[in-house]
Amino acid sequence: MLAETLLTVEKLSLAIRGNPILHAVDLRVRAGEIVALIGPNGAGKSTLVRCVLGLIRPDSGRVALKPGLRIGYMPQRLTVDSTLPLTVRRFITLGTPASRGQTLEILTEVGAEEIMETPVQAISGGELQRVLLARALLRRPDLLVLDEPVQGVDLNGQYELYDLIGAVRKRRGCGILMVSHELHLVMASTDQVICLNRHICCSGHPDHVARDPAFLELFGIEGARSMAIYHHHHNHRHDLHGTVVEPAEDGAHG
Question: CATH homologous superfamily of domain 5-70+141-246?
Answer without folding.
Answer: P-loop containing nucleotide triphosphate hydrolases (3.40.50.300)
